User: What shape does this take?
Amino acid sequence: MASATLTRTLYTLTSPNHSKPQPRTRSIRRTQVRCETVGVASENRQQQQLVTTVKNGNDSLEICRVLNGMWQTSGGWGRIDRDDAVDAMLYNADAGLSTFDMADHYGPAEDLYGLFINRVRRERPPELLEKVKGLTKWVPPPIKMTSSYVRQNIDISRKRMDVASLDMLQFHWWDYSNNGYLDALKHLTDLKEEGKIKTVALTNFDTERLQIILENGIPVVSNQVQHSLVDMRPQQRMAELCQLTGVKLITYGTVMGGLLSEKFLDTNLSIPFAGPPLNTPSLQKYKRMVDAWGGWSLFQALLRTLNQVALKHGVKIPTVAVRYILDQPAVAGSMVGVRLGLSEHIKDTSAIFSLTLDEEDVKSIRDVISIGKDLMRVIGDCGDEYRRA
Assistant: This one.
């Protein structure tokens, strides 16, 4: 999750000439790797690969196991053209990558989803509309959480996303010393009972607070946390609690903003201008994680190992990185950031569903990542990087 600004902004998206948007004539390419489609050879295995259901009690939501992460719409990755972005969202949905993750503070992300979902309603069959899911986050300042304040903010997201009910509301809280997060979650549960939210979830909560929340009867279905081959903290205390309670993990930072890719293989960032620039907020963020974990030389060893596995299976390094995390206990889905209208990686992303890592692959990867520092000791539990003094 990106660092948040604490004020809500209603973004007005207009086409360049500020006129009413006209229907696009550009054709949308379609790759048939739909999340609901079942493979020929092994029906059950393929279905497990493509979709999963997060649930708690009577609350449940089916999501694609690879989610389109929309942090990249918040600025810092290049100018987002509204129409191109919505076209790209349709392209992803047509390819089966039909779950979108956003937040109240990700620039125009919620507004883009509202435009996109209306295109789906008008231009696609009802079956696709049923499969498209929009997961958003609410990141309020740690002030008094009244029912009216919570309701007002959730109504803003509903309006921006143009939906009667949010598929999932993922809640974040900055300050654990202020237990107002329990009040907020109880009000969110009330809104769920009213039908304004389908499922309540968390983002960047630690294990201790997740247990407290569950003990207070809040029916959260998932916790979104940072999880990658470099950051294996969720597989310590968090995954154990999740397996005991049924709460699932949705992971972000799984390809580390693009660091886990061929682009950074055999590069030396210690020499100015010798390697690819760290020119996005995500690359800069996850380079700091590499430094905390073990440094660039060890990271190169990891990339070389991943490259060997990727070449063996005819895929790319990010595909291997995501597959490994999806195979970890309690992980329901993993985020792949999308630079809507600027670049796309649908073919490589879709390959995640058909990739199976064998014992040799897993051992070679595990041998490298085990050399790195234990980030639980360096940083703390999941989400603690956002709450350090």
